[in-house]
Design brief:
TIM Barrel, alpha/beta, about 250 residues, binds pyridoxine-5'-phosphate, eight-stranded parallel barrel, single chain
Amino acid sequence: MSHLHPIRLGVNIDHVATIRQARRGVEPDPLAAALLAILGGADGITIHLREDRRHIQERDLRLLRQTVSHRLNLELAAVAEVVALACEVKPDEATLVPERREELTTEGGLDVIANERTVAGAVDQLKAAGIEVSLFVDPDPRQIEAAKTLGVKAVEIQTARYSEARSSAHRAKELAALKDAAAYSVERGLAVHMGHGLDYVNVVHVARIPGVEELNIGHSIVSRAVLVGMERAVRDMKVAIAHGRI
Ligand code: PXP
């Protein structure tokens, strides 16, 4: 596979903050998770600062910016308050995503065409702050074309439909759409990122798509971290309890 160019892995640590917010406490700290992810080989850290502050907090963004020397990718909606914060804190990369309060996670790509003025305003502000801008879009040539018109560096092509496909025929169709969208973006000089719903099995085919430079993966990595860490965490608690019995 040496003929293939390397792909950056951005580890999305939002779920670590979700666990912390379950108690509104201090653990687990996404900052610690970010540093461990980097020890594990992550090429960057991705966080989504939502308007509703459901998981990642402003404090996390600021501390991560000061601590993580690897690429910091901030996902955000094109709303004034968060865009202004991004321009102040200056992550390496800003990925504009759609946001609806009732959603469980980001659902579908940004409609760049329908929201052109809002998105263009956010893109201009972020670019002026020296931040690389990426737009999270469906594998749809019209959206990619619209992204190109706004002068962004990259598109993050959303892989949810591929990840959620249940039959092999459907999966093959969605994979083909991803390949076409990647080729279309590369032809237009856009860097190609992908993400959403990627796991340890379905990532293999996506990693083979020519032109993909960056994958952003969260749920499957944090899910595995919880499981591979469980045995050790229980052992440590047994030791702590045993200390109390001496
Ligand atoms: N990329 C974008 C733009 C996202 O919004 C998300 C989820 O926050 C991801 C990638 C990561 O998706 P997942 O958690 O399903 O790996």
